[in-house]
Every structure is written in structure tokens, then in C-alpha cells.
Amino acid sequence: MPTTRDEGIVLRSYPLGEADRVVVVLSPRRGRLRTVARAIRKTTSRFGGRLEPFNHVELLLFPGRSLEVVTQVSTVEVFPRLRRDLDRVLAASVMVEAVDAVAQEQEPSQALFDLLLRGLTVLDRPEPPHPDLVAAFLLHLAGVVGLAPSLTACVACGAPASDRFSLTAGGVVCGRCRVEGAMRVRPGLTGYLDSLARSELDRLPVGPGGDDALGLTRRFIELHIDRRLSSPSVLSP
Ligand SMILES: [Zn+2]
Asked: What's the 218 CA to ligand 1 centre distance in angstroms?
């Protein structure tokens, strides 16, 4: 039977039977991939902590009855600084949760993989993360999966717009258009979100402060992926 070699970032895992776990990874070549790690819940497990969430790993996989079985794991990156700080762990949890929600099985997802790797890498840097890193990450994720909100042009007519936003219609709404559910947002907020969406995650612009950038982005994403993200996330400035 042929073994396959793959790489991925561990998104989560859950128990299977007495001692095994299903380990869900994001593979750039194969999208969301569910694998089985046998006997990983025994204290003598040969996998150690190598299949912990956020780890970037290389896997050797053997075909199983329904899921592929992990036979070897080596770590490429474990993001040690990220793990020493609860705020950063929570931020990383939102990132993997959102990726898990949008990734498809058996579908190449290089862009999504690259985005997650960048997000975790920035969270692992020695300096404090940008307070709106998670908001920026979610906006980039929306772009990768084709859900990017319109942040400068009215979703109904295309005119420049900035002070009203509709979560359901997917973006800003001008003063003339009647769009259901459009709500007023703080002046400058949508322009700031636009700059977050356009900037590299390691070079984000200085923000206006406040938590509404993340709040609005998170509600927008949750609505469009049809899932609540369970991890709280606040990166202290
Ligand atoms: Zn309009």
C-alpha cells in the first residue's frame, strides 16, 4: 500500500475510540484533511505534542479504512512565542477556526494555507501583535474565499460610501440607497477596514483604537460562513 507525504497546519483534533484522535489539518495540496493518529492519547504516544493545533507539520500518511492514518510526523514550525501568551493563543484559535470553516476537503488551498501560515508567523514575532491583526486576517480570509466586503463603494449602486454598512448585503451603503439592515458605523471605520484588507499582515496601518474593527469584521464573517467563532479574541494594544 502506498504511503503519501503531505504537509499541513494542525487546525484541531478530537477523540476517536479509546485512544486515538482525528487530527484535522489544512494541507495546501488537499485542503482540509482529516487524519487518524493512533494511540495518541496514551502517555507513551510516539507523536508527543507534535500534532498540537497551530503546528506546521510534515506527515507520512497510510491509507486507512475511511481516513488516512498518520504514521510519522515531523514539525516544521511550532510557534513557541505564540503559545506563551493567552491573547495570542486566542487570536490563533480564531484564525484556525475561521480557516476550518471555509476550507474544503480534497480541494487545493495554497492561498488559504499561505494566509494561515502568515497569520501564525506574525503572532509568533517577539513584538506585541497589532491590535487589529485578527480583523485584518479575517478580511484577508474573506478575500481568499471570494467573500470580501465592499468597503469603499456602495453595494447597491457603486457610488463612494463609507458611513453605513450592511452585514447581509456585504458592504457599505450610500445615503441614497435603501438596503435592508444597513447600520451606521463610526466615521473612518470602513476606510480603516479597507486599509487592513489591503495591507500585508506584518505591515498593518496604525488604527483608530476601539474594538469595532474586529467586532464588525467578525460579525460579517460569522454571518457569511454561517458559523459563530467560539474563541474570544482581544489583542491588547
Ligand atoms: Zn448606493
From this structure: 24
CA atoms within 13 A on the CB side of 69: 13
Topology adopted by domain 81-225: de novo design (two linked rop proteins) (1.20.1440)
CA distance 193 to 218: 12
CA of 149 to the centre of ligand 1 (A): 15
Q: Which amino acid is at 138?
A: L
pTM over cut 0.90 = yes
User: Which residues in the chain are classed under CATH 2.40.50.140?
Assistant: 4-78
| Nearest partner of 189 among 171, 215, 163, judged by Cα | 163
* Separation CA 83–CA 161 (nearest Å): 40
Name the fold adopted by 4-78.
OB fold (Dihydrolipoamide Acetyltransferase, E2P) (2.40.50)
pLDDT in tens, 18-55: 889 999 999 999 999 999 999 888 888 888 889 999 99
Task: Report the residue count for the chain.
Answer: 237
Q: Measure 193 CA to ligand 1 centroid, in angstroms.
A: 19
Task: Give residue 152 CA to ligand 1 midpoint distance, Å.
Answer: 11
